Amino acid sequence: MKENAATAEAFCLLTIHTHGQKKDDATAEEVKIEVLHVPKECKPKSKKGDMLNAHYDGYLAADGSKFYCSRTQNEGHPKWFVLGVGQVIKGLDIAMMNMCPGEKRKVTIPPSLAYGLQGYAQGKIPPNATLIFEIELYTVSKGPRSVEAFTQIDMDSDKKLSRDELSHYLKQEFERDGKKRDASVHDSILADIFKKNDHDGDGFISAKEYNVYQHDEL
Ligand SMILES: [Ca+2]
Ligand SMILES: [Ca+2]
User: Fold this and answer.
1) Is residue 215 part of a domain?
2) Residues in domain PPIase FKBP-type (predicted)?
3) What's the confidence (pLDDT) of residue 1?
4) Are residues 156 and 114 part of one domain?
5) What is the 197 CA–ligand 1 centroid distance (Å)?
6) Nearest-5° angle of CA 15, CA 66, CA 102?
7) What is the mean pLDDT of each run of 10 residues along the chain (218 residues)?
8) In the chain, where do the E strands start and end?
9) Ligand 2 is a single-atom ion; what residues have CB below 5 A from it?
10) 117 lies in some domain
11) What is the per-residue pLDDT for 12?
């Protein structure tokens, strides 16, 4: 949904500093967040474990060159990822907390919360690079490991997920995103889920086994 001129007046510029472990010297590294746009109805706010869908452009702070643009990758689909679990660089996990759908931010991430001294991708991101991202968030939904998702998958409410329940859930998820997949993909994902999560090998994934992100609600 593109915002139009009428909502442009809602444009505001705030600067929030997070990661506030200030040291005495001036080198304390933190993520700088500028909020470029907040929709009138700003909810739900993102939190750890949520599934986010966002577009972002990445620039090198040193010379302003663009090293990444989600709009030119994956046929221009916004990126999906789970917030706060290390699927993106640490700085982005911090920068995208407490953000609502439609919100836009420009964030500056120090190297220690990005690719550090090593850099990344054969020098595409040089060592010790400060990165700037412009982010537009589209959706915030309950992550794959939320209590809500568990309850939804657990159709007979016995507090454990059977192979049939997960298979049913996967089929629904696949239909939802509409991508064409071979039937074997379904089976191999299902097998993988059990391999990684069914720690005691009883053929069910218990609430405890499912809860890899340590939600405290379960
Ligand atoms: Ca069940
Ligand atoms: Ca089990």
Assistant:
1) no
2) 49-141
3) 43
4) no
5) 15
6) 45
7) 38 38 55 97 91 93 93 82 87 96 97 94 92 95 76 92 93 78 83 87 90 47
8) 14-17, 32-37, 51-60, 66-69, 79-82, 104-109, 131-141, 160-161, 205-206
9) 198, 200, 202, 204
10) yes
11) 31
